[in-house]
Amino acid sequence: MDFLTTVLLLLVGAGGGVALANTLRKRTGITDVRRDSVLLLERIEKVFKVVMAEGYFSEIYNYQDQKKILYVLNDPKKAMVIAKSKVLVGFDFAKVRFHAPDNGEKKLVIEFFPQPEVLSIDTDYKFYDIQAGILNHFSGADYTQILDEAKKAMNERAMQSDLPKIANNQIQYMMYQLASSMGWQLQLPEAEQRKLDALKAQAEEATKNQSQLLTGQ
Hints:
Helix content is 42%, strand content 29%. By secondary structure, it is of the alpha+beta class. The chain folds into two domains: 1-29; 47-215, no CATH class. Strand 5 and strand 6 (107-112) form a beta hairpin. Helix 3 crosses helix 4. The radius of gyration is 32 Å and the shape is elongated. Residues 2-15 have low confidence and may be disordered.
């Protein structure tokens, strides 16, 4: 076998191998996809935030933007977003102001206690019915604006629900129980103290009723 024949056989073999590899790749659906990500840590902060209530919400958000071509023809674009969120409501204890009496009395006086707030919103967004205009197309900034507005609407809906009230009741009763277990007396601001006293009365009544049911009286 001469040199030319050997080269031809090698080329044919190599070509056949490439063709076979391509065929197998197409049949198995294997694609070579590479993704790169970079994680940037901006800062770490110490916080003292306590979650007292958790709620789940679904929201349908309709976005529409009207744009005129040559100030005459409408060129609208619109999209519908379905958002499902888990909302955590609680308190930032860094905002609490309190003191203990100088006479050594086991009493914790709360001078100021913050209102409940949304601590986090974990949302899953899905876009439906996206319709771009002829010249009025969607940009990355448009999608960012839509998600920001949908998240803002979810925040407002959560604060208008029963979550803040539930969180308030939870934190006050928890603080009362914790102070009592350590032999301390808890004194809240007047308005909050009335709420706490009402909660304590309800808890005592519920315990009394449960005891009567167990004893059959």
